[in-house]
Amino acid sequence: MNAPTGISGDGKFATVCVIGLGYVGLPTAAVMASRGLDVTGVDVNNRAVELINQGKVHIIEPDLDILVNGAVAMGKLKASLAPVPADAFIIAVPTPFKDDHVPDLSYVKAAAKAIAPVLKAGDLIIIESTSPVGTTEQLSQWLASDRPDLKFPTAGENSENCNMYVAHSPERVLPGRVLIELVSNDRVIGGITEKCAEQAAALYDQVIDGKSLLTTARTAELVKLAENAYRDVNIAFANEMGNVCDEMDIDVWEATKLANRHPRVNILNPGPGVGGHCIAVDPWFIVDGAPDQTPLIQAARHVNDQKPLSVVQQVIKAAENFTNPVVACLGLAYKADIDDLRESPAVEITRLVADQGITVIAVEPYVETLPEVLADVEKARLDDALAKADILVLLTDHSPFKAIDPATLKGKTVIDTRGLWRA
Which of the residues 69, 264, 271, 366 could staple to 339 if both were Cys, CB 3.0 to 4.6 A apart? Predict the structure, then answer.
């Protein structure tokens, strides 16, 4: 196949435009820039754009600041409020859900509208945002509507005359290890057509060490959703066992440890719920597409969504032992040692406790200000919280909390949702 317009004769991509500079988009842009591509990152957040162009970052991820600073200094990475012409476009924008867990593709559609004017024949467009099945095909239709002069692919139809390439390659990285896994993990790459998948693989092969696994766009979309739904179901089992152990006055941590001595059993540890943009959201995308075929996935979502309420009830019960109790909620991020508060059960628990009229202070060492939903909650330093609180609620197993002297906890009522302080 002849090289598309804008790509070198050896099939190499030279320029990339990344739409969305959040927890996936910025690391992706930085990694590609570090591998020699000229990358423009686009975001609607003016402050983020300014910081990146200064070689700084607006999110916490190990070594990301160093990589961004180097890429900007070398002139390989710059940030902008608007898309620019490029050989490839990567869309890494939010894909939340609306009321009743209906997928919200408005950010993807806005990204399509934004890049349409700068597209040229031969360009590659990839969605990395986790998406409901059919989103990549919808993106191609949106682009075709805005640019009728270009020929976009359609699933199931002859694509010989298409001069545009559209694909889906979902991110599959773990916060705290994003830069490592962006390079080392295998990539599932789904094209609307086979040629679309091949073009996307050619781009990723320039920047990753893992394998490129080619499939259809719809399969790639479902693979990512299935991965997170699988994890959600397993977490739900652990959380349900936690509820059972609370009811039966059994140490869930000991029970789980002993059960896992069986060679074919690997039960997860329970927690305060499920957070983050992936596991708490993605299963609903499957449910929306196949509601009658997903009773297990829906049940798991119910268990995990209800888990924060059981923690709140424990706090309320403990508060009954004090006249004017002070509750310290330790950790707001959904995962240890990151600043990501998206869909965090810790935020929900903190808010619900404060709504009871209980004095609540929060400790979150990785964010500067509390979210608006916690307007009635005081942000405190860890040492101040330990001194003031009657009840300590450990919600996130951040490293600073692991280092707490057990003697400091004496005389306090402790609700440890992570099993961090078990003797």
Answer: 366
